[in-house]
Structures are given as C-alpha cells and as structure tokens.
Amino acid sequence: PPYEMSLVFTDSETVQRLNRDYRGVDESTDVLAFYMLPQHGADADFVSPPDDITHLGEVIISYPKTEEQAKEQGHSTEQELTLLIIHGILHLLGYDHEKPEEEAKMKAREKELLEGRHPMVERSLGSDNFIPNDTYLCNSDSQLIILTGPNMSGKSTYLKQVALTVLLAQIGSFVPARSARISIIDRIFTRIGAQEDLAAGQSTFMVEMTETANILHNATPRSLLILDEIGRGTSTYDGLSIA
To answer: Which of 55, 122, 43, 45 is nearest to 92 (CA)?
Structure first.
C-alpha cells in the first residue's frame, strides 16, 4: 500500500512546547517524530483515512536549530536538513536511540542512505550542478529498487553510479559518496542499452531477453543486478508486461 508522512519546519519555541507537552522535556531539540502506526507505539485507536494510504506520522524540524547545527558541523543547511529528515523517518519506522545499541543501529542506517554520486558525470557537469542520491539495498528487507521518472531525469545515471560505487568498493578504493556501508559482492550484472545483433540474427528484444536470462541463471544472493528499461525493444504493452 502507498504511504505518506507529514513534514513540518517550525521555530525552536514551537518544538520546545511540543517537547514539554508530549514528552515531558522542557527544551528545544532539532527534530521530533510522532508515530501513527500502532506497531511502533502509537495509539491503537487511531484510524487512517479510507483512501488506502497509510499515514506513517509527522516529522517536525526546528529550522533555527538546523542552521545552528550545520554551522557547528561545517556543512550546508541542506545537508543538515537531509540528516534530520532521515533521522525523523527512521523514528517513524520504529528505530530509536534510547539505548546505546539502538543508537548505533540507527546511526548505521542513517549513514547507509547518504549522498552517492557518479564521479564522471559530476566532473563534466560541475559539483554545483550534480545532485547526490541516496541508496539503501539489503538482502533482509530491501532487495529491490524500482526507479521511474521522465526522460533525462537521471535514472540511468543513478543506476550506473550504484554499480560504479560498488565496483570501486570491491577493489578497496575510495567511493564517491558522503558515507557508505557496502558488503562483499561476488558479481555485478548489467542490462543497459539496446542494440540488435545482426550477425547472430537476433533482434533488439531477443538480445535483451537472452542477456536477462543469463543474469537470472547466474546471479546469487550476493550479486548486484542493474537492469535498465527491460522490454523497450518491443511494443509498449508487451514490454510493460515483461518488466
């Protein structure tokens, strides 16, 4: 089912009042999160609107506190906002940091999500024009990313930067990301681009299907698969059904 959340930017006085009224803590903090899911501690009597959209909750951020912490950390306000939004969303998903082990786990998840880049594209565009992207993939709870968007929105760049970052990590290189936690990968499979093989008598669609079949037969639980527009070598409806 689709999910939604509310994101509120406000002043430090409002955050302090909310802390005092709902947490019994009379101080201003950088971010607050209020659950709406009963399994994460919310009121079980809360009823979601009848529109098949699950409301995760509300994240409230003190903008003055964000600016203050950005200066202390030596990075931009936008970067600090990214950290606080991720922090708040993790709270909505059930993560906490009351105990040291919980804090360590939550911090690890935050770091896994931050600011990957494609070094070659960034170099050609200039660092001011390239927008970093976050990625989280895990065998246990997040094995698949389905990426959609209009033409020229950067989908293929995102796919390639993930593969390139993983490859660099496997050879012990620095990676183009603010932070990363990357496990050992045994193989990287890619199905990118579209071209026919006239010498072998294979159409564009046949080449796509042959390469995809090879990936499915040889991939393991430790493999990274990058598939870009599978089925575009045939009709729209057939390609959509296959993808």
So the answer is: 55
From the candidate CATH numbers 3.30.300.90, 3.10.180.10, 3.40.390.30, 3.90.550.10, the one assigned to the domain spanning 3-115? 3.40.390.30
What are the start-end ranges of the E strands in 36-84?
54-62
Q: Give domain limits for the chain.
A: 3-115, 155-242
Confidence of residue 171 (pLDDT cuts 50, 70, 90): confident
**Two structure tokens written together for 235:** 């009709």
* Contact status, residue 57 vs residue 42, Cβ threshold 8 Å: yes
pTM of this prediction?
Answer: 0.49
At 155-166, the pLDDT tens digits run 888 888 888 888
Place of tokens 């796919």: 159
225-236 burial: b if 16+ Cβ within 10 Å, else e: bbbbbebbbbee
Distance CA 105, CA 140 (A): 15
- Report d(CA 123, CA 102) in Å as an integer: 38
204 by Cβ neighbours in 10 Å (0-12 / 13-18 / 19+) ranks as middle
